[in-house]
UniProtKB/TrEMBL annotation:
Species name: Nocardia jiangsuensis
Parts of the chain that traverse the membrane: 12-33
Protein name (record): DUF4245 domain-containing protein
InterPro entries: DUF4245
Keywords: Membrane, Transmembrane, Transmembrane helix
Amino acid sequence: MPNQKPRILHDYRDLFFSLIPLVLIAVVFAGLASQCSFSATGPTQGRIPHFDVDAALGSDARTLPFPIRNPELPADWTPNSGSRETITAAGGGPVSTVGYITGDGTYVRLSQSSATEEQLARFVLGSRYPTGTVDVDGVKWVVYSEPTEENAWVADLGAVRVLVTGAGNEAAFRTLAGATTAARPLQPPSR
């Protein structure tokens, strides 16, 4: 073809203009597959997954060997996740965890376990150590904090240790901590 440049004269501008159609095709396919979107006002919160906290904690109350509490939280808090794990180290035990999205859109979670405070904290928080205490409605909570990590509070309620952690602020921690200690342990049905 007589009006094409010799290959040696091609430069980055030619490469750039040849990639534009490929990028446009990729964007069209991603849009058709609903895998991307554009919002001029910034990101929007996605749909919070449904999690039946009553059924999950009810099941835990029937099967775990320690009292389980289901805290009564503000109406704008949404349970979104839960799990059951086991700490196998000495002083360990089963752990029931439920996560919530607060009214402010932050995530906090509550773990309940028969494990010792040290084992529960090590299991959930790694190598962090206590840095102080707070009092919530007459219950002492041991605070674990590090500048670059999420804070955590742990309380010993006798037969169970409870741990609150997440991205929430102190008000969210106080709300969850207070609702947990105020809640009566769920009664498993008679067998």
